[in-house]
Amino acid sequence: MFPTRLDSPVAYEIAKAMMDGFNRHYHLFRSESARAKQRFETADWAGQQRAQRERIEFYDLRVRECFMRLEREFKAGEQPMDIWHQVKLHYIGLLVDHLQPELAETFFNSVTTKILHRSYFQNSFIFFRPVVSTEYIENNAPEAQPTYRAYYPTLDNLAGVLQQMVLDFGLCREFEDLPRDAALVTGVIRPMLDRVKVHANLQIQVLSSLFYRNKGAYLIGKLINGFTEQPFALPILYNQAETQLRIDAVLHGDDDMHVLFGFARAYFMVDMDIPSAYVQFLRSLMPRKPRNELYNALGLAKQGKTLFYRDFLYHLRHSTDQFRIAPGIKGMVMLVFDLPSFPYVFKVIKDFYPPPKDTSREQIKGKYLLVKQHDRVGRMADTLEYSGVAFPRNRFTDELIAEIEKLAPSQLEISDRDGDGQLEVILKHVYIERRMIPLNIYLQDAFDAGGADPSNSSPAAQSARAQLEHGVIEYGNALKDLIAANIFPGDMLWKNFGITRHGKVVFYDYDEIEYITDCVFRKVPKPRCEEDEMSGEVWYTVGPHDVFPETFGPFLLGNPAVREVFMKHHANLLDPAFWQKNKDRIQQGHMFDVFPYDQSKRFVVSPRQSELPESM
Question: Which family does the record assign (predicted)?
């Protein structure tokens, strides 16, 4: 029962200390995000990546600080439960006029669950669902910027309005030719208006902060014409000489925006006063994108996890299908299962790994953390990591339970943990990723439809052939983008890659990844004698980090149709000199450009792009 009176001074002091802890966290988070503008203006790319990586750790550090303060000053873990009821009510009062109430609720949960016993993770002690609305939050301080700015062009002055819109961001680095860029942008936007009637309500709305990631800054907005809205983004990059800025392209429409904000991309740096308002604006551009992925994209991963879990519980409530072993080839390290009606997969680290795998649970978790902190360049799926996750037992197939008991018994508990009479499957540690079509299944579907038979000219076979070519070309593009990010995937088999809804190939098996700069790329030595040549065993020495690109072919290119496409577009991936050349450039401090949009959308393709394969 909730208390009818708030009569405990210590309860208020605990609530205030927790709010102070959150406010400190968001101040540091926002300050680091705001400094992205200066790093962009000074072309400090190494600093930008370092800040993106370090910012990920901010949240856990602040939660730990707050927890330690509560224990030190209030002996919080010894306080009775009626005090904790009052703590939450006081905290709700502190949320009323807060600008980031949803984030503060999540922070409260993070701190509280470090203090209270699991049996108290109930609605009355934590924020199981939000209690303060995030609608129409405004900062009325005179110096505060609005969430977005509105511009009202006409067909005659569109280019001029676009030019002023860019200048209003106050970048302290001049453009190479902003009138030229504004004219190019107008050339893309104008046809959208020529095909329809121009209404009285013609306006452009743009978010007040640029979105910074790696070597780019992105202006995010939408073109409104009457009742229609067209989302767009303008990537702002440096010119070839890296001395001045230019607008590189116009990204518009649903697909472009989803790829830009994709789950396989690094998080943006954005200076946000009211994050929920940014998410609401972004959802108007991408209505099908879950809010949890938008919070993730903005660097607010803990809030993303909170919203994902709420969505997951809501889905369980309104579905009846069962969790099952995920389709596809089973991995050696991860046990993977899914719920057919839910677009994610769940991955549990196995307790033991058959030869030749030589790893450990901690090493595998370290690889996943590396990916979380690294630039994923659109080619490595982001993961949500949870501990102590409870599922209804009646939603698990017996086959899946037997699989977990066999391969990961240390991670499994089946009990009525909450004492409500309902058996639960409790997993001690689990990763959750967006579900994709495994690339081997995608290619097999093409084979089954006749895509590998050149004599089959039926429409179905031609479509299958196009699918096969797309999968193989995208696979090579994915490897080359990973090279640019200094990542060697280790296990390059087709089954470790997936196809997204937008046709992008994404890597998702991280237990063998290494930095390119840690690898030694070698040619296979020539046989010393006939016995060497005929031997089925490796007769030359192999170091722990040695990689022989020439040996990729037998594992990947057994199908002649696959081999033909691969060799036409990506033969250099079998050449150790190609890998070594790019390794050398990375070691020299070069940061390659990897674009989150198709090269055909660019206004100018810089000659420097030829330094790496065409896909970059």
Answer: Belongs to the AceK family.
Residues 394 and 505 in one domain: no
Find out whether 302 is annotated in a ligand binding site.
Answer: no
- Give the pLDDT score at 606: 54
Q: Could you please report the per-residue DSSP string of 190-244? A: HHHHHTSPPPS-EEEEEESSPEEETTEEEEEEEEEETTEEEEEEEEEEE-TTSSS
Q: Is residue 2 part of a domain?
A: no
Backbone angles phi, psi at 183, to 5 degrees: -65, -40
114 labelled ligand-binding: no
Domain boundary among 435, 457, 476: 435
Q: Do 485 and 429 share a structural domain?
A: no
Residue the block writes with tokens 């890659």: 497
Domain boundary residue among 260, 280, 298? 298
Contact between 258 and 190 (Cβ < 8 Å)? no
Task: Tell the residue number behind the tokens 């990920």, with chain if given.
Answer: 56
Quote the CA–CA distance of 204 and 148 in Å, as a whole number: 10
Quick check: is 310 in a domain?
no
Is 332 annotated to bind ligand? Answer: yes
Residues 347, 451, single domain; the answer is no
Q: How many CB atoms within 10 Å of residue 501?
A: 14
CB-count burial class (<10 Å; 0-12, 13-18, 19+) for 164: middle
User: 70-107 pLDDT, tens per residue?
Assistant: 999 999 989 988 898 899 999 999 999 999 999 999 99
Mind telling me the catalytic residues? 382
220: its two tokens? 């995010």
Per residue, the 3-state secondary structure of 405-457, as one string, reads: HHHCHHHEEEECCCCCCCCEEEEEEEEEEECCEEHHHHHHHHHHCCCCCCCCC
pLDDT digits (tens, 9 = 90+) for 540-551: 788 889 999 999
**Res 305: pLDDT:** 94
The residue count for the chain: 616
Is residue 268 located within the same domain as residue 384? no
Give pLDDT tens digits for 310-348: 999 999 999 999 999 999 888 889 999 999 999 999 999
Helices 58-74 & 9-34, crossing angle to 10 degrees? 160
Contact 439, 475 (CB under 8 A): yes
User: Is residue 75 annotated as involved in ligand binding?
Assistant: no
Domain assignment present for 136? no
Instruction: Give the pLDDT score at 356.
Output: 79
Half-sphere exposure of 527 (CA within 13 A, CB side): 10
Q: How far apart are CA 460 and CA 465, in angstroms?
A: 9
Any known ligand binding at 554?
Answer: no
17 is in an annotated binding site: no
Range of the domain at 398: 324-435
List of the chain residues with pLDDT < 50: 607-611, 613-616
Asked if 458 and 602 sit in the same domain, the reply is yes
Is 318 inside a domain boundary?
no
Query: What's the total number of domains in the chain?
Result: 4
Residue 438 pLDDT: 94
Six-digit token pair at 613? 């394969």
Q: Tell me the C-alpha distance between 22 and 595, whole Å.
A: 35
Q: Are 480 and 379 in contact (CB under 8 A)?
A: no
Q: Are residues 179 and 293 in the same domain?
A: yes
Q: How many CB atoms lie within 10 A of CB 558?
A: 9
Is 329 assigned to a binding site? yes
Residues 283, 251 share a domain: yes
DSSP helix/strand/coil, 325 = strand
